[in-house]
């Protein structure tokens, strides 16, 4: 707690009045916004109702940014000219109700960062699944081509921190619906919408249409000079686009049908990316990322590269040389003929569906965590086909048991990662895969999905 820190607004805008910027939440996004705000002459104050990590506190102290933790000083917060809200703070919270009542303008960290990076080209990627992989792959394409690019947002460091500390010509940004909810002018030159499946519905009044509309905000400020790259096979995306106007140049990708116009499609076991009369053609067997879902991710990233005039040879080279991300279908080890795969980043049912769909060996599945209102029946057929046992890991495993116990021969409950890995090892035989793909948030037993993935890897190494 930092009760001794006083808030003394001193910065002024062009009219001479004080610009007081309050940052709610002191995670990576909030600290990035604080650093950028300070650099741009705002008087910044950071408020977090929880405990702030020591490294972030040190960073704020070094940069003379006042902050508080474990409390919210209402007079300071409600006296702000503008608030940057952490994407993790729901609108239903007491904090946001008071802010909205007082009508203090609220923006997201990506909106703040955009104000000071408009001269750059911004490639923004969203979707319910595959965002991190597609963002990393797109960045790999740009770096392989020698472009002055950075990867930021929900992957790595925050967009605002990147703008403040190491500005570049091309920003490849992973963006969540929560971040898009509080934009006003943010306009990516290239927007990618990978898919929309039920997720975080508790934040959207349990209405799918609200969540869909949130995802489409990525294109709301785009013009005909911009590009909107989207999955033609996704029914939610198709339905929305049939009813609403997208003003940017739309480029689809699909694995279901050949495309007569520009976009990405599959024919004769080859990925075809057609744009600017110079197609990129890659055998699906040469792609670095395997599985049907990664065909979509590879096409989306390849199209983004083509919109920025990256040579087809560089795109092809990148799509075949990319190394997958930690905690996303990450091979860990083989123990007594059993493969262990870490897919801790799978925090919803659709991610788990994709993981199971790509499996060719019998699976012992470790899943569970904080249930976000998941419909596990969506994976029942795949579980029946591929899963020989489920190890549940979480405080409340009843929804998983109710939905899937009849679809698999064995189901075990555990309350720690170590126990989960040991139980899975007992259920597995030589030639099987033990797959950690939780389909849930991690906050009941772990700090976050990274902590969950690391604990899984440690437990596997101890076998």
UniProtKB/TrEMBL annotation:
Residue span, Mur ligase C-terminal domain: 327-440
Domain of life: Bacteria
SUPFAM superfamilies with a match to the protein in the record: MurCD N-terminal domain (SSF51984), MurD-like peptide ligases, catalytic domain (SSF53623), MurD-like peptide ligases, peptide-binding domain (SSF53244)
The protein, known as: UDP-N-acetylmuramoylalanine--D-glutamate ligase
Protein task: Cell wall formation. Catalyzes the addition of glutamate to the nucleotide precursor UDP-N-acetylmuramoyl-L-alanine (UMA).
Pathway recorded for this protein: Cell wall biogenesis; peptidoglycan biosynthesis
Catalytic activity: UDP-N-acetyl-alpha-D-muramoyl-L-alanine + D-glutamate + ATP = UDP-N-acetyl-alpha-D-muramoyl-L-alanyl-D-glutamate + ADP + phosphate + H(+)
Cited PANTHER family: UDP-N-ACETYLMURAMOYLALANINE--D-GLUTAMATE LIGASE
E.C. number: 6.3.2.9
GO annotation, biological process: cell division; cell wall organization; peptidoglycan biosynthetic process; regulation of cell shape
Any GO molecular function: ATP binding
GO-annotated cellular components: cytoplasm
Cellular localisation: Cytoplasm
Listed NCBIfam families: murD
Gene3D superfamilies: Mur ligase, C-terminal domain, Mur-like, catalytic domain, NAD(P)-binding Rossmann-like Domain
Keyword vocabulary terms for this entry: ATP-binding, Cell cycle, Cell division, Cell shape, Cell wall biogenesis/degradation, Cytoplasm, Ligase, Nucleotide-binding, Peptidoglycan synthesis
Top-rank EC class of the record's enzyme: ligase
Main location per the UniProt record: cytoplasm
Domain Mur ligase central: from-to ranges: 125-304
Stored InterPro entries: Mur-like_cat_sf, Mur_ligase_C, Mur_ligase_C_dom_sf, Mur_ligase_cen, MurD
Homology family: Belongs to the MurCDEF family.
Residues noted as binding ATP in the record, renumbered to the chain: 127-133
């Amino acid at each position: 707690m930092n009760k001794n820190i006083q808030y003394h607004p001193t910065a002024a805008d062009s009219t001479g009045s004080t610009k007081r910027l309050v940052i709610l939440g002191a995670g990576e996004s909030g600290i990035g916004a604080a650093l950028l705000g300070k650099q741009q002459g705002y008087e910044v104050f950071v408020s977090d109702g929880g405990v702030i990590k020591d490294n972030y506190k040190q960073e704020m102290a070094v940069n003379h940014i006042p902050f508080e933790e474990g409390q919210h000083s209402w007079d300071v917060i409600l006296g702000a000219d503008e608030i940057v809200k952490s994407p993790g703070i729901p609108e239903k919270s007491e904090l946001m109700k008071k802010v909205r009542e007082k009508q203090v303008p609220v923006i997201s960290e990506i909106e703040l960062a955009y104000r000071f990076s408009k001269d750059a080209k911004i490639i923004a990627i969203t979707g319910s699944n595959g965002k991190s992989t597609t963002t990393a792959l797109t960045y790999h394409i740009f770096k392989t081509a020698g472009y002055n690019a950075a990867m930021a947002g929900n992957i790595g460091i925050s967009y605002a921190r990147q703008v403040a500390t190491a500005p570049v010509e091309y920003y490849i940004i992973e963006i969540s619906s929560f971040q898009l909810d509080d934009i006003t002018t943010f306009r990516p030159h290239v927007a990618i919408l990978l898919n929309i499946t039920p997720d975080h519905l508790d934040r959207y009044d349990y209405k799918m249409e609200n969540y869909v509309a949130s995802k489409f905000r990525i294109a709301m400020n785009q013009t005909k000079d911009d590009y909107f790259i989207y999955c033609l096979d996704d029914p939610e995306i198709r339905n929305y686009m049939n009813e609403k106007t997208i003003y940017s140049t739309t480029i689809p990708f699909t694995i279901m049908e050949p495309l007569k116009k520009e976009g990405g499609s599959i024919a004769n076991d080859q990925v075809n990316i057609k744009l600017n009369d110079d197609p990129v053609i890659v055998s699906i067997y040469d792609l670095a990322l395997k599985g049907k879902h990664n065909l979509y991710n590879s096409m989306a990233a390849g199209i983004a590269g083509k919109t920025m005039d990256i040579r087809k040879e560089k795109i092809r080279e990148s799509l075949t040389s990319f190394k997958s991300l930690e905690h996303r279908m990450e091979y860990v080890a083989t123990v007594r003929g059993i493969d262990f795969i870490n897919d801790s980043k799978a925090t919803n049912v659709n991610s788990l569906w994709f993981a199971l769909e790509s499996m060719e060996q019998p699976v012992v599945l470790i899943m569970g965590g904080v249930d976000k209102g998941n419909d596990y029946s969506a994976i029942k057929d795949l579980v029946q086909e591929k899963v020989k046992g489920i190890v549940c890991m979480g405080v409340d495993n009843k929804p998983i048991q109710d939905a899937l116990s009849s679809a698999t021969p064995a189901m075990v409950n555990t309350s720690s990662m170590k126990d989960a890995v040991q139980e899975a090892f007992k259920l597995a035989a030589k030639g099987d895969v033990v797959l950690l793909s939780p389909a849930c948030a991690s906050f009941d037993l772990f700090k976050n999905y990274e902590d969950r993935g690391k604990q899984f890897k440690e437990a596997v190494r101890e076998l």
